[in-house]
Structure formats: C-alpha cells, structure tokens
Q: What sequence folds into this?
C-alpha cells in the first residue's frame, strides 16, 4: 500500500511540474535580468538584518553585487565566467557560523520570494549552492 | 522533574533567542516515542532548529485513534548544539473495550555522528537509545511479556535532496532498531517466542512548498508474544507555518494489535519549537 501511495504522490507532484523542464537553471531564474533582481533583493534583505549585515560592515557593496551576480550566473549554467575571489579565500577570517550561514539562506529565499522566483526554481539554485557551505563556515 | 526544570529554563531563555539555524521544515516532527522523526519512525535529525552553536527545546502532544485503541503522548526534546538530543515521552494507551489505560514513559538520547541532512554529501547519521518503562504492567505480565521495561538501540540515516523531483525537495530516512519491545513496549518486552531483534523502519516525504510535506512511513515490528503483532504504516501531511510550530495529521494502518483486527484510524500531532 505504501509503495502505491508514494508513487501516487510522486506522480501528482511531477504531473503538475513538467513545463520548463528543458530550460537551463539560468533561464528559469530569468536570465541576467532575473538574477540581478534576486541579488538586489538579497542585498536589501542583508541590509535589513542586523545579524548578517555585521559581516558586511566594510564591504564595497557594488563589487559584492557584481561578483555575486556573476557567481549565480555561472553556477546556473549561464553565459558567464565567475572571476571574483574563490569561496574559501573571500570567506576566510569571517568565521561564519553554521547558524548564520543557514540564516543567510533564509534571507536568499526571502529575496527570491520577493521577486517571484517559484519554489521549484528556488530549490534548484539552493541545490547548487548547498555543497559550497563546507568551504565557507568556521574559517 | 529535573528534566522539566531544564526545559522550563530553556523555554524562558528561548524567548530572548529561539534557535532558527536550520531550513524550515527540515528537522521533521515528533514521533510517538519522543524522538524527532516522522510519526512512528525516529529520524537522524535532532529535534528543533538548533545549529552547532544553538540549543533548541520543543514540546509536543500527539494522539493516535484507531478502531479499538487510542494512544495519547505528550513529551519534550532538548537539542544541544545539533549534537545530542534528549527526549522524554509520556504515553497513555487506552483500551476502549476494557475501559483501561496503560501508561509508559520513554526516555531517549540521540547523537548525530555524521553529516548534515541538507548540506553534507552523504546522509546524516545518528545513533539513538530509548529506554521504556511501563507504569502499568498488569496486561503485559498477563500476556506473557518477560519484562515491563526495556531499551531500544537504533541507527538512523536521513537525507534531504534539494530540488530532487521536478524541483521539489525530497527527504528519506532509514532506521534499524534493535529491540525487544512488544507494541512499543506498551505490552512489555520479550515473550515466549524470541528476545531482541533487528527491525527496519523507513520514511519518505516530499516537501510541496516551504510549509507543507506529505509522506509515508513503515515500521517493522517483532512478534514476541505470538499475538500476530503487525508492522505499522502511515501516510502523513505536515504543516509547518513557521519555525515555532508544526501540525501533523496522518492516516494509520496498524494491523492487528493484541488480537483486535485491522486497527486503522487517525493521528494528529502538534509540536512547539523554542
Ligand atoms: C552559498 C553561499 C554564498 C555564496 C555563493 C557567496 C558568494 C560570495 C561572493 C561571490 C562574494 C564576492 C567575492 C568577491 O568580491 O570577489 C562574496 C563576498 C562576501 N560574502 Fe559571501 N557567499 C555566500 C555566503 C556568505 C555568508 C553566509 C556570509 C556571511 C554570513 C557571507 C559573507 C560575505 C561577505 C562579508 C563578503 C564580502 C567580502 C568583502 O568585503 O570583500 N557570504 N560572497
């Protein structure tokens, strides 16, 4: 019975989600324009969050914005090559905690909600970013 | 009592700073023996939203209502630094026909030994212990159970795959439990047929959004008393409006329990996270 129920759940889930499945993640994110909107909203979210903003007190926001857009474009298979500092170098010395990292993910989700990125596309971007966490926390 | 004091202190402290260091919905809910899990299976996740630098406390109450029986459970968990989970569950098992209640206390400890449900490459793995003590052991004794208390040992592995199915997050958990418990321990431990056994349990769920998960569970059970104890199954939907609350409803198929056939019915559970 369980197998049947589970299969049913999966079928329902996949039936209502087949459009767009051939588009690259970059396209699903709305290409350059969409990624810029996400990063803009994300920076706003960080600016309004005392806990995370503390990490960015001395950051040049315009560089961070440009490099993060490039990073998201690259990681979502867009036509860009990330040329900023690598993840380990840039985050070394910040001693980002696991809780703060995960909280930043919540801010990114809030930013994506704000600009109307669908739940399923959000998860696909998060899936690409999640493996990077180990390079960034407690260093 | 000591545990209650610790929990109230934590609760008071948590008003200042509630743990929120995990992605919403990912810690799971509270299973009937007190551990973080699904409804009937303990999962590898530790209860609540504590990250490695946080402490989380949770309280829960659940009710399972099938044809001839009802189980009410209330309990609490404390999660220290996403490393150790302590849990306590007070169960009241009601036999409708006999107008009789069997009470059992379950004390649990679970420790995360590897990984992170969401972020590590391989599944999160935890080891757990559940110590069970009957407060009313007359029925267990009458049915031939060897002991009125006993201890389960289990290992659990869980993984959440981000965007696994058409962009939806998918969670699975496998648990292997070494146990002598009859019907959770409500009917004591051991019996004429056999002693300790390894039992397999599994859960899987799809998160339909940040706030809703649907899934199924399966729990293998031993038959020490020779009463035809059946494996348990359920299908559940959990609603997680925020990081302080979750509500789970399930449809239970518990098979035969102590001679009463086809025990099916509803399950409802509420957990508060601090
Ligand atoms: C997967 C998650 C993350 C990604 C992909 C990411 C990516 C980036 C990128 C591309 C840059 C710009 C690099 C450059 O200027 O060359 C950057 C800078 C920065 N990141 Fe992250 N980051 C992540 C998580 C975090 C978290 C969780 C924090 C803190 C809580 C953080 C704090 C910073 C700060 C403060 C800077 C600016 C450094 C400076 O001022 O030069 N990052 N990050």
A:
């Amino acid at each position: 019975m369980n197998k049947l129920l589970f299969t049913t759940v999966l079928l329902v889930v996949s039936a209502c989600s087949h459009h767009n499945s051939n588009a690259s993640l970059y396209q699903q994110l709305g290409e350059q324009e969409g990624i810029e909107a996400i990063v803009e909203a994300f920076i706003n979210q960080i600016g309004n969050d005392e806990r995370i903003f503390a990490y960015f007190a001395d950051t040049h926001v315009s560089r961070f914005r440009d490099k993060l857009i490039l990073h998201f474009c690259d990681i979502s298979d867009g036509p860009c090559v990330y040329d900023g500092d690598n993840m380990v170098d840039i985050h070394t010395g910040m001693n980002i905690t696991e809780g703060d990292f995960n909280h930043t993910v919540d801010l990114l989700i809030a930013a994506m909600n704000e600009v109307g990125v669908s739940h399923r596309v959000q998860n696909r971007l998060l899936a690409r970013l999640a493996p990077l966490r180990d390079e960034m926390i407690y260093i | 009592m000591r545990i209650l004091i610790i929990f109230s202190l934590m609760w008071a402290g948590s008003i200042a700073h509630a743990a929120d260091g995990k992605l919403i919905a990912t810690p799971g809910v509270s299973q009937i023996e007190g551990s973080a899990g699904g409804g009937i299976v303990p999962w590898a996740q530790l209860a609540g939203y504590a990250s490695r630098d946080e402490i989380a406390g949770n309280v829960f109450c659940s009710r399972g209502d099938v044809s001839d029986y009802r189980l009410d459970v209330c309990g609490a968990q404390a999660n220290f630094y996403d490393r150790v989970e302590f849990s306590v569950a007070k169960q009241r098992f009601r036999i409708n026909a006999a107008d009789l209640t069997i009470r059992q206390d379950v004390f649990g400890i679970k420790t995360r030994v590897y990984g992170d449900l969401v972020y590590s490459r391989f599944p999160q793995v935890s080891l757990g212990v559940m110590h069970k003590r009957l407060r009313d052991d007359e029925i267990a004794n009458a049915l031939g159970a060897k002991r009125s208390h006993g201890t389960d040992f289990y290992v659990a592995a869980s993984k959440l795959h981000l965007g696994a199915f058409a962009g939806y997050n998918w969670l699975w958990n496998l648990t292997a439990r070494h146990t002598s418990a009859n019907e959770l321990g409500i009917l004591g431990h051991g019996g004429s047929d056999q002693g300790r056994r390894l039992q397999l349990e599994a859960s899987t769920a799809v998160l339909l959004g940040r706030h809703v998960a649907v899934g199924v569970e399966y729990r293998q059970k031993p038959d020490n008393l020779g009463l035809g104890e059946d494996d348990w199954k359920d299908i559940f939907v959990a609603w997680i409006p925020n990081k302080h609350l979750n509500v789970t409803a399930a449809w239970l198929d518990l098979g035969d329990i102590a001679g009463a056939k086809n025990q099916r019915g509803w399950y409802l559970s509420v957990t508060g996270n601090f």
